[in-house]
């Protein structure tokens, strides 16, 4: 094979011909894996610190790996702190809140995308305009409403502002607009009501997008800090983000204790993402077909 032909086709390594596209693909993937690995560095350090004894944590030279492993920090945080009750409260908040957000946002998005009613465009315009309003501006009026409803120091008071998030409505609006009108017309000829069309046709067709919204909502509610800090006044009802901060603001802060608490707080989200990643990727793929 001439040098010109070899240059056009690619490279030859150990008698194996490799095309330029394969070389580019390998280099691209190695670069992406290396870039992704950078995001794992803080998590690896956090996990390493949570199982190191105290003398290694305060050592001037960093120790990423050690054979001197201890689970004392986990024992302390699980059995000598309110972390278990904080975790239960956070899970209840995130689970119930996610169900409410998915139900309300999906129904609102379907009504805006598929139903004809007076003022529909005006409502959609208000939803789009609300994206320009900073979240901090709404804290005082929302707190006044929640206080009037008697939901202060109540997990329902945290869920209330998230019940009709404009992000979820706008996100699902794009997907519901993509449903063929012929399907709805055929369903109505078969005697389907609007509610039945929504639950039997619209929801199954766009389930990956709805599941992705549920994943985003769960993560957002699990990690929410400012609003729960304003609403909750009883330490026994604290969520994990608030509770972990109280561990850091005491007179003596143990890095191993804080890191083990951070691992406990992040583990459910990691498991949930791994379980739901297929739906997330399908939602991204469907987004490319939205008209």
C-alpha Rg (nearest Å): 26 Å
- Here the CATH topology of the largest domain equals MetI-like fold
- Spatial strand order of the main sheet: 1-2
The biggest sheet amounts to: 2 strands, antiparallel
Number of helices: 15
Identify the CATH architecture of the largest domain.
Orthogonal Bundle
Low-confidence stretches: 4-8
Mean pLDDT equals: 82
**Can you tell me the CATH superfamily of the largest domain?**
MetI-like
| Global morphology | flat
Count of the domains:
2
Q: What is the helix fraction of residues, given as a range?
A: over 70%
Query: Which series of helices and strands comes N to C?
Result: HEEHHHHHHHHHHHHHH
* Top CATH class of the largest domain: Mainly Alpha
Task: Give the structural class.
Answer: mainly alpha
Strand content: under 5%
Distance, first to last CA:
49 Å
Q: How many strand units?
A: 2
How is this structure best described in words?
With 291 residues, the protein is mainly alpha-helical. It folds into 2 domains: 3-70, no CATH class; 82-287, MetI-like (MetI-like fold, Orthogonal Bundle). Helices cover 70% and strands 3% of the residues. The chain has a two-stranded antiparallel sheet. A hairpin with a 2-residue loop joins strand 1 (10-13) and strand 2. The relative contact order is 0.12.
Observed structural traits:
291 residues; two-stranded antiparallel ribbon; 2 domains; MetI-like fold; flat; mainly alpha; 70% helix; 15 helices; single chain
Condensed summary:
The protein is mainly alpha-helical.
């Amino acid at each position: 094979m001439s040098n010109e032909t070899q240059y056009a086709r690619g490279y030859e390594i150990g008698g194996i011909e490799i095309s330029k596209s394969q070389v580019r693909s390998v280099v691209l993937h190695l670069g992406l894996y290396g870039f992704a690995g950078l995001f794992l560095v803080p998590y690896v350090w956090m996990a390493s610190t949570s199982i190191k004894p105290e003398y290694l944590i305060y050592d001037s030279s960093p120790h990423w790996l050690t054979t001197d492993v201890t689970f004392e920090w986990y024992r302390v945080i699980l059995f000598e702190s309110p972390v278990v009750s904080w975790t239960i409260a956070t899970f209840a908040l995130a689970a119930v809140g996610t169900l409410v957000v998915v139900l309300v946002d999906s129904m609102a998005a379907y009504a805006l995308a598929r139903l004809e009613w007076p003022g529909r465009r005006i409502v959609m315009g208000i939803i789009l305009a609300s994206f320009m309003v900073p979240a901090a501006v709404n804290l005082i009026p929302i707190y006044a409403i929640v206080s009037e409803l008697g939901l202060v120091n109540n997990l329902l008071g945290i869920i209330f502002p998230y019940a009709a998030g404009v992000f979820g409505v706008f996100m699902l609006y794009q997907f519901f607009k993509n449903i063929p009108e012929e399907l709805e017309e055929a369903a109505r000829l078969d005697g389907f009501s609007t509610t039945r069309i929504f639950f039997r046709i619209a929801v199954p067709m766009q389930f990956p997008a709805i599941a992705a919204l549920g994943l985003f909502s769960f993560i957002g509610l699990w990690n929410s800090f400012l609003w729960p800090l304003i609403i909750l006044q009883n330490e026994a009802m604290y969520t994990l983000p608030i509770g972990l901060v109280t561990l850091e603001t005491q007179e003596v802060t143990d890095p191993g204790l804080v890191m083990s608490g951070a691992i406990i707080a992040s583990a459910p989200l990691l498991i949930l993402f791994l379980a739901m990643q297929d739906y997330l990727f399908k939602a991204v793929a469907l987004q490319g077909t939205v008209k």
